[in-house]
Design a protein that fits this description.
Helix content: 25-40%
CATH topology of the largest domain: Rossmann fold
Bound molecules: adenosine-5'-triphosphate, magnesium ion
CATH architecture of the largest domain: 3-Layer(aba) Sandwich
Number of helices: 10
Strand content: 15-25%
Shape: globular
Radius of gyration: 20 Å
CATH class of the largest domain: Alpha Beta
Order of helices and strands: EEEHEEHEHHHEHEHEEHHHEE
Length: 319
């Protein structure tokens, strides 16, 4: 069953006199209990999409159009008071670079406690008990609740952030690059932890990353984002086995194949588009090896090749 549906979302920023179309007509859906990976190069609009869902867009930004349906309710139409009732409780986020946002002068236990008390009317004793339970959940020794952030490793700080994001038992958790800056071993441990908690708490997840191998391991569905748009989406195996958009194909090829001999990820030649003045036609056409006249002039519409798999490209599957 669908728990979240994002329909034709447009989120813009104002920079001076210019309009910057960070998210430009994005649609996807998330099923209950499932994980959706949102992938794309830096600056393509992943975090802005997440912040739009949370209604936490920076002041110079706004949702210009579209719907964000959570259990059928359109969150874009809700007042800030209503939004406060569901933010963190229904939908929560582990922010990009969150572990560096812990307050250095408060113990980690205090910080989680404050986050809970801000949203729930429970006694301090009950809250302390909840903090200890959360520490147990994210596998940190309970004795450490009275320690300060600098006494924690990067991986442990990230566990604290996960505990904080889960403290109100949300139905949807958004992980915005939850393991960036951690080494590969610790990354794997954190993903195992997230996966276990997701199942135990029966949550759905949106996982944001630019690493497709992380998505392949952790998500049933994938959406490929480029220059503020979704170029392809579907079940992760559909996307990996039959990529239709050349960008998806190049992105897949740019990751080292773990089964074959090791090589470093390569990058796709060229640069992402300038979103104050995006290219006409397909946003990827200036970098696409098979683009021709129509790609430069007509924006491709989504084509469905299964109930779940769709792509936007005039040359689908030709690369
Ligand atoms: N407050 C803002 N004002 C103006 N532009 C912004 C603002 N926040 C983000 N942007 C721009 O919007 C675009 C999308 O940013 P966003 O952070 O959503 O990208 P991202 O896909 O999360 O990238 P990354 O992988 O680097 O985290 C970027 O070009 C960014 O510079
Ligand atoms: Mg981001």
């Amino acid at each position: 069953m669908e728990i979240l549906k994002v329909k034709n979302l447009k989120t813009y920023f104002e920079i001076g006199k210019e309009k910057f179309k960070a998210v430009d007509d994005v649609s996807f859906s998330l099923n209950e209990g499932e994980s959706l990976g949102l992938v794309g190069e830096s600056g393509c609009g992943k975090t802005t999409t997440a912040l739009s869902i949370m209604r936490l867009i920076p002041k110079n930004g706004w949702i210009a159009d579209g719907e964000i349906l959570y259990k059928g309710m359109d969150l874009t139409k809700k007042s800030i008071e209503d939004i406060r009732k569901f933010r963190w409780k229904e939908i929560s986020i582990i922010f990009q670079g969150a572990m560096n946002a812990l307050n250095p002068v408060l113990t980690v236990g205090e910080q989680i406690k404050e986050a809970i008390l801000l949203h729930e009317k429970i006694s301090v004793t009950e809250c302390k008990k909840r903090v200890l339970e959360l520490f147990d959940m994210v596998e940190i020794d309970k004795k450490r609740v009275t320690r300060y952030p600098h006494e924690f490793s990067g991986g442990m700080k990230q566990r604290v952030m996960i505990a904080m994001a889960l403290s109100l038992k949300p139905k949807i958790i958004i992980g915005d690059e939850p393991t960036t800056a951690l080494d590969v071993m610790v990354q794997a441990q954190i993903f195992d932890l997230i996966e276990r908690l997701k199942n135990e708490l029966n949550m759905s997840m949106i996982l944001i990353t630019h690493d497709l191998s992380i998505i392949a391991e952790n998500c049933q569905h994938t959406a490929i984002m480029y220059g503020g748009k979704i170029l392809e989406r579907g079940k992760t195996n559909e996307i990996c086995e039959k990529p239709m958009n050349p960008y998806t194909k190049l992105l897949l090829e740019s990751f080292p194949d773990l089964d074959k001999e090791k090589h470093m990820p390569s990058s796709i030649p060229g640069y992402p588009p300038d979103l104050t003045n995006p290219p006409a036609g397909c946003r990827f056409h200036p970098r696409c090896p098979i683009a021709d006249g129509i790609c430069a002039s007509v924006e491709p519409k989504p084509c469905y090749i299964s109930d779940t798999h769709s792509y936007s490209c005039h040359k689908g599957g030709a690369l």
